[in-house]
Amino acid sequence: MTPFDPVALAGSNNPDMTDHVSGIALRSKAFRWGWIAIVLPAALTSVLIGSILYLFYAGVGIWGIDWPVAWGFAIINYVWWIAIASGGTFISALFFLTRSEWRNSINRIAESMTLFGAACAGIYPILHLGRPWLFYWLFPYPNTMGLWPQFRSPLLWDFFAILTYVISSVVFWYLGLLPDLATLRDRAPTRGKQVLYGVMALGFRGTSTQWRHYHALYGVLAAVMAPLVCSVHSIVGLDFAGAATVGWHSTMYPPFFIFGAFLSGFATVLLLIMPMRRLLRLERYITGRHLDVLGRLLLTSSLFVGYGYIMDAFNTYYGGEKAEITMYQERLFGYYAGIYWATILFNVLLPQLLWFAAVRLNQLVVALIAIGVIIGMWCERYTIVVVSLHRPRLPSAYGLYHGSIWDWLTLMGTVGFFVFGILLIVRLIPVISMFEMREILAPRRP
Amino acid sequence: MSIDLNACIGCNACVVACMAENNIPVVGKQQVMHEREMHWLRIDRYYEGSPEAPDMLFQPMLCQHCERAPCEIVCPVGATVHDEEGLNVMVYNRCVGTRFCSNNCPYKVRRFNYFAFAAEERRPAVARNPEVTVRARGVMEKCTFCLQRIAAARIDADAANRPVGAEEVQTACQAACPTQVFTFGNMAEGGQVVERKKSPLTYVVLDDQDTQPRVTYEARIRNDGSGAGA
């Protein structure tokens, strides 16, 4: 494996690739490792459902949130997941526009990651509410109460941003699937699968008219998605920057949050493709080139994020506001200092190893760095939400915060749900976008 | 409202009066240790000098009813708004519980019903003030300047076709205070509160935030005895 591998190893061709990839989705029996792999995620998904039901029954008091730290895990996890989701869109939409050929073999898994990441993110703002059953009051609809939402609130912008993002991610993912679903329909071994994939393929038959419309629509959607992923994450940044709260009121937040989204997105894609290529024998189509490119992207976004941390510190001390400096000192040296320094270690220092090509191709080290980044990004959001809130302007309102058992169970539950979803995708749909791979592979067996 | 810090002895009578008047739930030891007490009015304590013999400084802290209230602009559902008399009011029925208002309040005077505190309280219904809404689980609440008392005075004044008098309304904290720390009134009609706010000692808390609060404080003057016998 070298960084100079082609995106598909020499000797790859269309018929082999289509046989192999559609064969995975159309297997009559599940993989043996699949049964083992799905146990824990399925259990955690049940934990998620259980903790949500208990939350609705008992109220948000079961969490660790208190006074003055009124936002906790729900917001941390929301930002964390939406960032992971955004990285997938970035790969599938932006690198489609730049015509990067390496994207073709990993865009399906990246988009699926977006889909389930956004699903995990999307439930948190609703769970976060004190009265979650009234979440739809944020939506501007004509109602008998004569009420309209308050458009100055960043939370309202956020509501629109998530809604737009979730809907367009689902549409983009599904549209990208259509030709492959049609392939599965044509190759389905049983009547049941034929009907299932046939219905899902929405009558895509591969006529030249259909392809023309398809390419036009896909191009337009990609051009919409690439800026959308930036706007949605800027809005997440504005959820904080739009407030006058200590530690949040910074013009740097929107771009800073986008950098964070790229970092965690690339890390998660790396973490997904490495086991996938081995377990599904896709080494031929996911090569050293992919690991190398993603490693470089991870390093680049790590440098961006590091720049964000430096500017955050600079703005605080250069700005000279006492409350901000007090909070920042607490962040660096106080009760929660370990979390801040873990952020720096995992997000900035460890990824520097990726400067070396040998490290970028060492799957074990890359996996460790990627896991580190994912933990580091969670720690970063913990610092932003909790550490900022626990040192407000009035010293009389200083407080502490600890997540409760229900906070942790809900977090673990969404992680399980995410893995559960990815495993379902791997089992049921082509994990590599076959029609896009055909554009770069030899048309027939040699 | 004007609060004279020279008079405050930190006795907490105002806090208790506020809880009785406004049906504020008692949350119990566990929840207090979890920093979830519901006091709309609290006495902030600051210490000065040596730890052995500190000088204690008290400051009653309640909703400052800001003209440029940071809580109002961050609420997505318009649950906290200005009324025509300049009060910052909380509309419990509209609140969905995002708690953004609490994060954005520089004075941290907003309190959240993490559980159904009022419903769980062992207090007979007759022990509650019938003029004040009992808040449900999942909504934010805060000091209203005893809105129910203002409303009662307004109804009387409307019936007699006259404005509400300068000192016609007394808030619960004001009525309970043994040292007359609080001065409250309809500033449109003049009266004592207008005079007090002219004092050179008057200041607003966190002036740099430009929230323009309707509560002002009169700074404490201490005679530390250093000039004695000169």
Gyration radius over CA of chain B: 19 Å
Broad shape of chain A: globular
- Spatial strand order of the main sheet of chain B: 8-1-10-9
CATH architecture of chain A: Up-down Bundle
Tally of distinct domains of chain A: 1
Topology of this structure?
The complex is a heterodimer of chains A (446) and B (230).
Chain A: H1 14-26, H2 32-58, H3 73-97, H4 107-128, H5 154-187, H6 191-200, H7 208-241, H8 253-279, H9 288-319, H10 322-333, H11 337-349, H12 357-361, H13 363-389, H14 405-428, H15 434-437
Chain B: E1 2-4, H1 13-21, H2 29-33, E2 42-48, E3 55-61, H3 70-74, E4 80-82, E5 88-90, H4 100-104, E6 111-112, H5 117-120, E7 140-141, H6 147-159, H7 172-176, E8 182-183, H8 192-197, E9 202-203, E10 216-218
Parallel strand pairs in B: 1-10
Antiparallel strand pairs in B: 1-8, 2-3, 4-5, 6-7, 9-10
Core attributes:
heterodimer, A: 446 residues, mainly alpha, Formate dehydrogenase/DMSO reductase fold, globular, B: 230 residues, alpha+beta, Alpha-Beta Plaits, two-stranded antiparallel sheet
Describe it.
By secondary structure, chain A is mainly α. Chain A has a single domain, classed as Up-down Bundle (Formate dehydrogenase/DMSO reductase fold). In chain A, 69% of the residues lie in helices and 0% in strands. The model of chain A has no long low-confidence stretch (mean pLDDT 93). Chain B has 230 residues and is of the alpha+beta class. Chain B has one domain (2-218): 2-Layer Sandwich (Alpha-Beta Plaits). Helices cover 23% and strands 15% of the residues of chain B. Chain B has 8 helices and 10 strands. Chain B has helices at 13-21, 29-33, 70-74, 100-104, 117-120, 147-159, 172-176, 192-197, and strands spanning 2-4, 42-48, 55-61, 80-82, 88-90, 111-112, 140-141, 182-183, 202-203, 216-218. The interface between A and B is large, with 43 and 45 residues.
